[in-house]
Amino acid sequence: MSNLVGKVDESRPFGFVVVFTIMAATAIMAVQSLCNMPETSQEDISPLMRDTEYATPLLVMRVCFFLLCLSTLWVILCDRTPFEFKYLGNKVSLTGLARWSTMTVWTFTLETVYFGCVSLISFGYKPEGLLVFSFLLFEIVYPLAMLITVVVTFVLYPTAVKLRMDDQVQRMFHWPVLVMHVANLFMAQFEMLTTGYSFRDDHFVFPVLYGCLYVAFAWVWFLRTQIFYYFFLDWRRWYAPLAYIGLLMGLRVLYYVAAGISHFIAQHWISPFIVLTATSFCCQFRHKP
């Protein structure tokens, strides 16, 4: 594995200090921006408040998405077949709640909560707190769904194929995994197309803070298991600082891409075709096992 993703240098204890400094500085700046941020306005949540002639189809879509997400999480929770993950000679067997240690499952859980919330809104339950929470939650879920799908399609899957990690390659084609890595983005895109959100540029701090939170968890998980699910988070690799900076920049860029898509959808009638075509491109595994 080291030949493809870089060697691990056990003699680089300062590696953690460097990446910790990067993440801590980012988190502090994000919190400062959050404290100075204007409150969410009625205009921000207006897409969730309005009643349209498509209210019933929208309700059906959201409930179906919620049930699909919930059933997928239930299958993951109840599956007693251990999922074994190997990393540099270390192995962990995941069952039950231990599977909530990957960013994919974290984000898919947030997506499940989101569709549960907007299903309630579609049923007519519209307290302001729920509207604001749903809007902010989607500003995290949407760019993170893009990040997960892109990373899996263009980084993790090709790497697993090249390293002949056959078990992990085959597992990526199991339906719960496909739902979390492929259907997750399609569901988010359909929600964006039908709801018509307009993302606020200053809200990029929410996915960035979410990323910082997961990275902190990944560090704790590594100290406990000696496992990194995402090799580029391993601070012992020479390129780790660049990888962390790239991850943070990627989260911000993806948020602005999401914001750009939200504005593009509102202005162009052909936007559904373009958005769904781009989504299909991002979800195709090009390296055959």
UniProtKB/TrEMBL annotation:
<dbReference type="GO" id="GO:0016020">
    <property type="term" value="C:membrane"/>
</dbReference>
<feature type="transmembrane region" description="Helical">
    <location>
        <begin position="12"/>
        <end position="34"/>
    </location>
</feature>
<keyword id="KW-1133">Transmembrane helix</keyword>
<feature type="transmembrane region" description="Helical">
    <location>
        <begin position="238"/>
        <end position="258"/>
    </location>
</feature>
<feature type="transmembrane region" description="Helical">
    <location>
        <begin position="54"/>
        <end position="77"/>
    </location>
</feature>
<keyword id="KW-0812">Transmembrane</keyword>
<feature type="transmembrane region" description="Helical">
    <location>
        <begin position="97"/>
        <end position="125"/>
    </location>
</feature>
<feature type="transmembrane region" description="Helical">
    <location>
        <begin position="131"/>
        <end position="157"/>
    </location>
</feature>
<protein>
    <submittedName>
        <fullName>Uncharacterized protein</fullName>
    </submittedName>
</protein>
<feature type="transmembrane region" description="Helical">
    <location>
        <begin position="169"/>
        <end position="188"/>
    </location>
</feature>
<feature type="transmembrane region" description="Helical">
    <location>
        <begin position="208"/>
        <end position="231"/>
    </location>
</feature>
<keyword id="KW-0472">Membrane</keyword>
